[in-house]
Amino acid sequence: MTADSTDFCRKAPPDRGASSFIYPPTPANLKFFAEALKAGCIVAIPTETVYGLAAMALNPKACRSIFAIKGRPLMDPLIVHVTGREMAEELAYVNPSFQKLAEVFWPGPLTLILKKRGTVPDIVTAGRDTVALRMPRHAAAADLLKILQSPLAAPSANPFGYVSPSLPSHVSDSFGSRVPFIIDGGPCEIGLESTILDLTGPGMPVILRPGAIGASEISKVIGLPVQSRLEVIGENIPAKAPGTMARHYSPKTRIHLFEGEPAACESGAATIYLKRPAGKDSDKDTVFWLSDSGDPAEMARALFALLRKLDEKGFEEIRCEVPGISESGVAEAVRDRLIRAARQ
Ligand code: TXA
Ligand code: MG
Question: Are strands 182-183 and 152-153 parallel, antiparallel or unpaired?
Answer without folding.
Answer: unpaired
